[in-house]
Amino acid sequence: MFTGRLVSMCWHVCVSSTRRGGMFKKKSTLKPDAEGKKRSDGGPSELPCVVMIPGTLCDERIFHRQKHAFRGIANVKIVGYRDLGRNVDWAATLLAQLPQRFCLVGFSLGGLWALELLRRAPERIERLAMVASNALGASVTIQRKASQLWRLWRVLGPGAVAQRVKPEYFHHEMQRRRHARMVHNMALLTDSKVAHAEFNWAASRPDGHADLARFPGPLLIVSGAKDRLCTPAMQRSMVMTQPNAQWVELPRVGHFVPLEAGPRLSDALRQWISLQTKSFNDDDSRRTAPAIHSL
User: Fold this and answer.
1) What is the helix (H) or strand (E) element at residue 102, kind and residue range?
2) Could you give all domains of the chain from N- to C-terminal order, each with its CATH number?
3) What is the pLDDT of residues 133-158, one digit of tens each?
4) What CA–CA distance (Å, rounded) separates 236 from 246?
5) What is the DSSP letter of 66?
């Protein structure tokens, strides 16, 4: 368990979306009686809406532990990518299906999509959690890697792509072996058009630092200290951009934080969504938040 002050912001809640679409595996992860339960702090009966966006070649299984951790305290919606490969504005379609106010959790590529939603509808996002992600715009190096992965996909298939990136995903060989089947299976179940669209977005996304700097809500950054894809330097860049950010850096953890450090990520997210926060006008809350190491 780690300690630390969460950034200040007034508490808001959002109601469940009444629209149904292909992007969500379930309308809600909560049972009806849990959704109607009154909060222990005496606040409104509606639970906060938490939208979780998976990473590249991932599906809802990546957030299995976090979904369970939010039971009874949030209405969770896990976004699916099956509509991403169509010739539509995916971000706009997603926003049309979401409640007026919601909280965002983005893992890896999901964090890049979260920044795009923040760019388009900043007034609708209450809280933002970036998990093993970054706010950098596409570079020549990123574009080259995305092109290589897509070429590998077309020639040898999704299994070869999963095999290629797996060493970069996990810090420990034991963790790599433990989650290899799931990583491979998620890749196999990804449609080729969706994979192509994911690679393209990674290679074309704009820089998100300015959007983070303008974001007034609670910002949580969770990363692995041994992440070779979204490095500690990238996390520090986000913290420097938004001093109100709370950064939780997990030692001995690589890129796949939801799998390698599921319980610790769940603890950080529960604090982020549950704790009452002070006003951002408080001068004390403007201090740069230090990294908090969860052992």
Assistant:
1) strand 102-107
2) 32-136+207-293 (3.40.50.1820), 140-199 (no CATH)
3) 999 999 999 999 999 999 999 999 99
4) 11
5) H
